[in-house]
Automatic annotation (TrEMBL):
<feature type="region of interest" description="Disordered">
    <location>
        <begin position="157"/>
        <end position="177"/>
    </location>
</feature>
<protein>
    <submittedName>
        <fullName>HPF/RaiA family ribosome-associated protein</fullName>
    </submittedName>
</protein>
<feature type="domain" description="CSD">
    <location>
        <begin position="105"/>
        <end position="169"/>
    </location>
</feature>
<dbReference type="InterPro" id="IPR002059">
    <property type="entry name" value="CSP_DNA-bd"/>
</dbReference>
<dbReference type="Pfam" id="PF02482">
    <property type="entry name" value="Ribosomal_S30AE"/>
</dbReference>
<dbReference type="InterPro" id="IPR036567">
    <property type="entry name" value="RHF-like"/>
</dbReference>
<dbReference type="InterPro" id="IPR003489">
    <property type="entry name" value="RHF/RaiA"/>
</dbReference>
<dbReference type="InterPro" id="IPR012340">
    <property type="entry name" value="NA-bd_OB-fold"/>
</dbReference>
<dbReference type="Pfam" id="PF00313">
    <property type="entry name" value="CSD"/>
</dbReference>
Amino acid sequence: MSPSEAMERNIRERVEKLDSFYDGIMSCRVMVEASHKHHHQGNVYHVRIDLTVPGHELAVSRDPGLDHAHEDVYVAIRDAFDAARRQLEDLERRQRSQVKMHEVQAHGRISRLIPAEDYGIIETPDGREIYFHRHSVVNSDFDRLTVGTAVRFAEEMGEEGPQASSVRVEGKHHLIG
């Protein structure tokens, strides 16, 4: 169907809201179709939105079925854009969890141990030295650590520079990934 100026303006505003919500939208195609199947009542509108974002194509199809609310084209458009926003929210959640799952923990080898002061130093493959405290060692006894032990750790900024937390000894019973 040919859109009125008001309908086109409404759709453009909703597309802009989607674009401000999800920055990566590359294209958005909206189709509004009037169904003539229900002659005893008004036209029921079918709205389809095709979105392209990096690595994904999303399609929203609001089939009115017997939903008489979709006799109002603006209600049908609103419902379709609400569904598109939910799909973008779901995609964003999946992308965030994928990033978290694929983060590789920093690794290195213990280069110095100072048991009397309850700390040690980890040397990373790029030569940086990272401080760690006895209480940062997970599932291992600090007193059993030796110079040269391979470890994985989470790096954070401490009061005096980078420090390691959640220090885990690598080995045949430890995950490396």
